[in-house]
Specification:
Elements (H helix, E strand, L loop, with lengths): L14 H18 L7 H16 L2 H29 L7 H11 L17
Length: about 120
């Protein structure tokens, strides 16, 4: 007998129709005075509870941290690329100074080899 249930109920409606009905219910509850409105303390407690739940999943936190790092690295790279292009190839240009400094510095001696550049992190 499930063949007749496909066109019945809230879930079978299109999303716009569901939104209209839900909106009417919300407005009626507010007019009646029975709608719940979060206080600042309730909202703070709910946010803390959600944050604790999410942060307990270490794999998830690792994944979103990695994405954030990639995103910020991309922004840094796009900000620094116009500066590199303005230095030109003249002697003493900013690009020349940084490459000489990094080549002569202890940290720069292992740079580009893929071994972590001497960091122990």
């Amino acid at each position: 007998m499930q063949s007749g249930t496909r066109n019945r109920g809230f879930a079978s409606m299109d999303r716009e129709k569901q939104r209209q009905i839900a909106r009417k219910g919300g407005k009626a509850a507010h007019e009646k005075g029975t709608a719940h409105e979060f206080t600042a303390d309730e909202a703070r407690a709910a946010g803390r509870k959600g944050g604790e739940r999410v942060s307990s999943d270490r794999a998830h936190m690792s994944r979103i941290g990695r994405l954030g790092g990639k995103s910020s690295a991309g922004r840094r790279a796009s900000k620094s690329s116009p500066e590199e292009g303005t230095g030109g190839s003249a002697p003493g240009a900013r690009g020349d100074q940084t490459s000489e400094t990094s080549a002569n510095s202890p940290e720069g001696s292992a740079g580009g080899t893929g071994d972590g550049g001497g960091r122990n992190e």
